[in-house]
């Protein structure tokens, strides 16, 4: 069987977007990394949140080899992924006013912590309210979103505003509205979304920038190693014990 033309086109589109965010978001990535490093150095905590498929990029930096042991998932019941039944309930919950406030109020997040909020459209009530409430509590908020949505869609938050309007730092994924990179004759709907690839890359680049800043300050980044390499479990046990008061995904 020969090479797929459409598969190649998707790779080209994804690579093009990655180049755009690498070049266009470089200052914001450095600033986000510095904010994370500042929180680590000062004894504060790190949280990441995303709803629906945006949660994939948040989960990608939590409890994984090569990642910061201190990054915690701020989970909102029913919106983390497609495990909720029916799956459409997750999308509906993103539009419920008051949910983000209730989650933040019952979370360990407090002033001085960093919260990364990932929302492709940034238009739903949940991420907007999450950002507003987090900043009111004194958290530093990093938003990862496609700024384009704010120019061509209507906000679903009562304020009429978007995630990008309530962040200290905004990382623009530059994903086109609709999140589908390809079209083809005979296929009525556009397809092949790239937001997960690009957003996860933005997250990992930000964490790399944070590690770089910590080293510049003379601080060892609190990284986890793979449990599938010799010595990995022992390393992780030491890191988790040292930072136990800032890790919330284990008892």
UniProtKB/TrEMBL annotation:
PROSITE patterns: SIS. Residues 36-219 form the SIS domain. InterPro entries: RpiR-like_SIS (IPR035472), SIS_dom (IPR001347), SIS_dom_sf (IPR046348), SIS_GmhA/DiaA_subfam (IPR050099), UPF0309 (IPR022951). One of its GO terms (molecular function) is carbohydrate derivative binding. SUPFAM superfamilies: SIS domain (SSF53697). GO terms for biological process: carbohydrate derivative metabolic process. CDD domains: SIS_RpiR. It holds the Pfam family SIS_2. Belongs to the UPF0309 family. This is UPF0309 protein SGA01_32490.
